[in-house]
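Margin note: ligand = flavin-adenine dinucleotide.
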Amino acid sequence: MTGADIVVIGGGMAGASAAFELASAAKVVVLERESACGYHATGRSAASFTENYGTATIRRLAKASRPFLERPPEGFAGSPLLAPRGMLTVARADQRAALRDELERALEFVPTMRRVSVDEALALVPVLRRDYLDGAILEPNSMDIDVHGLHQGFLKGIRRRGGTVIVDAEVTALERDGRRWRVSTRAGPLSADIVINAAGAWADEIGRLAGAAPIGLVPKRRTAFTVDAPAGTAVEAWPLANDVGAEFYFKPDAGRLFVSPADATPSLPTDAQAEDIDVAEGVDRLERATTIAVTRVVRRWAGLRSFVTDGSPVAGFDPEARGFFWLAGQGGYGIKTASALARATAALISAGRLPEDQVALGLSAAQLSPARLRGMPVDGGMPATARA
Ligand SMILES: Cc1cc2nc3c(=O)[nH]c(=O)nc-3n(C[C@H](O)[C@H](O)[C@H](O)COP(=O)(O)OP(=O)(O)OC[C@H]3O[C@@H](n4cnc5c(N)ncnc54)[C@H](O)[C@@H]3O)c2cc1C
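Resulting structure:
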C-alpha cells in the first residue's frame, strides 16, 4: 500500500492549489476520479476576479489571493495570470435601490468602486440599450483570470515539489485504521495521516465515506454559452457587464461574448449539462438589455457551484472525524479565492492557525471551520480531536 502524509481527494482548483501549498513540507498525493483534472467546475467558470462579489469572507479571501495572482512564484506560469477586465454592474429604473445598496456595500471592501453615468456606461459597453439603463457602477480593478494557467501551474508545481497526482483514481472507501486513513481507490489502496476533502460538488459524499456529518452542501447549476460579437465591433476592451439583480452577465471571450443567465438551480452532484430553457432565458435577457440579436449560440455548457448555508467556503478539520480536513463550498468563487484558501489550508494543518496576512484582513479560522455549521466551538481552527 502506498503511504503518504496527506491524501487530497479531487484535482480541481481547490485540491490542486492546496496540494501545491503542502507539497514542499509533506508527502502529498492528489487523487482525481476523472482522466483529467479540471473536468468539472474548475474547467467551466467565467474566469473572473472581482473583490466585490460574495460574502464578506469571500471578499477578504479574494483580496488575500490577489498578491499570488499578480506575482506568482518564479516559473509558475508562462504568462500573466491576470488581465484587466473591469466590472460594470448595471441597473434598470426598478433596480435603482438595489444599485445604491450594492455601491454602499461595495465601498466597504473596494474603495475604488464608483458610480458611472449612463453615458459613460454606454461608452464602455456600447451595445447596452439606453432605454434599459438607469444607472451603473464600475469596479475598475477587477480582472480576468487565466484559469488554465493557474490550475496547470499548481499541478506542475505539485510534481516539482515531489508530490504526486493520480487520475482515474476515484476514491471508493475511507477507513480510519488507528492513527491513519486507509483510502481505497480505483487505482489501488493508499494510506495517509490526513485526508483533504476537495471533491467539489461531491464533498458531502466523500464526508459520508469518512463517517463525518454532512456540511449541507448544495450544488447549484449555472449555465454559460458563447455568442458571436456584433459584426464589425471590437469587443475585447469591454468590461464584464453584470446585472445588479443577478439576472445575467456577459463579457468578451476570445473575440466572442461569454453570456450567463446567472442561474442557480439546485442539483445533485453530477456532470452538469446546459438545459435549453436556461440558454433561452440567457439569450432573452441579453437581447432585452442590449442591441445584440443572437443568431446562434456557438458553445454552451453548465457547471456546479456548491454552497453551504452561509455562502462562505469551508476549510478546516472536521470536529469529530480525526484527520479529516474539509476544503469545500467555494460556490461561485473557487478560482479567485483558491490561492488564499490553499494557504489557509496549509497553515491550519501545519500550525493550527491562519496566515498573518489573512488575519490582518479580518479572516479567522472560525469563519472557515466546518464546526460553525454544526454550532460547535472552534479552537484555533484545529480541534484537538482532529489532530492525527
Ligand atoms: C458557470 C460558472 C462560472 C463560474 N465563475 C467563476 C468565476 O468567475 N470566478 C471564480 O472564482 N469562480 C467561478 N466559478 C466557481 C468555480 O469554478 C468553483 O468554485 C471551483 O472550480 C471549485 O473548484 P473545486 O476544485 O472545489 O471543484 P471541481 O473543479 O469540481 O473539482 C472537484 C474534483 O473532485 C473530483 N472528485 C469528486 N469525487 C471524487 C472521488 N470520489 N474520488 C476522486 N475525485 C473525486 C471531481 O472529479 C472533480 O474533478 C464558476 C463556476 C461555474 C459553474
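Residues 49 and 238 are 15 Å apart (CA to CA).
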